[in-house]
Amino acid sequence: MPHESPADIAVLDAAIAQQITPFADTVERLDEIPGIGPIAAQVIIPEIGLDMSRFPTAKHLASWARFAPGVKKSAGKKKGRGATGPGNSYLARVLGEAAVTAGHTDTFLGERYRRIARRRGNKKAAVAVGFRRRGPCVRPHRPRCRPWWRRPSATRRR
């Protein structure tokens, strides 16, 4: 895409905006989650869809997105290449970027990311934050999720 002109990109952005207009309320709900902005929401909605009946739980969704941690051990030795297996790599990439972005915020997700990154590294922290905490609220058909990602001290009155 290095040969794309700004005019071509503007045309594509306008087409995406037109296609995502019916899902504006879902984009707004996803935008409330730290690390997920309007652009990430515009990727998440088409990749997952609105029919969540095929995902019984958030863990099934994360596994389908290739964002579930894969651990294969036998006799105390790790097996495999460390990848999380086949799945939707576009969605996994967006969730990973959102987890890293949330790691730079002053929220529960940011604290969790930094705590895990200190011990285990940035990549494992991104998977842990993206898999454990985002799955339940990324499912667009759900009513508003309670804001568990905010720090308790930020929401408590003194």
Report a brief summary of the structure.
56% of the residues lie in helices and 3% in strands.
Runs in which pLDDT lies below 50 for 5 or more consecutive residues are none
Fraction of residues in H or I helices? 55-70%
- Main beta sheet, described? 2 strands, antiparallel
Q: How many domains comprise the coordinates?
A: 1
**Class by alpha and beta content:** mainly alpha
How large is the radius of gyration? 17 Å
Portion of residues in beta strands equals: under 5%
Spatial arrangement of strands, main beta sheet: 1-2
- The number of distinct β-strands equals 2
Helix count from the secondary structure assignment: 8
Nearest-integer average pLDDT: 77
Series of secondary-structure elements, N-terminal to C-terminal: HHHHEEHHHH
Distance from first to last alpha carbon: 52 Å
Overall shape: globular
Structure in words:
The structure is a single chain. The protein is an all-alpha fold and 158 residues long. The protein has one domain (6-69, 82-155). Helix content is 56%, strand content 3%. It is built from eight helices and two strands. The chain has helices at residues 6-20, 24-31, 38-48, 58-64, 89-102, 108-120, 122-138, 152-155, and strands spanning 73-74, 77-78. Strands 1-2 form a two-stranded antiparallel sheet. Helix 2 (24-31) crosses helix 3 (38-48), helix 3 packs antiparallel against helix 5 and helix 4 crosses helix 7 (122-138). It starts with 5 loop residues before the first helix and ends with a helix. The mean pLDDT is 77.
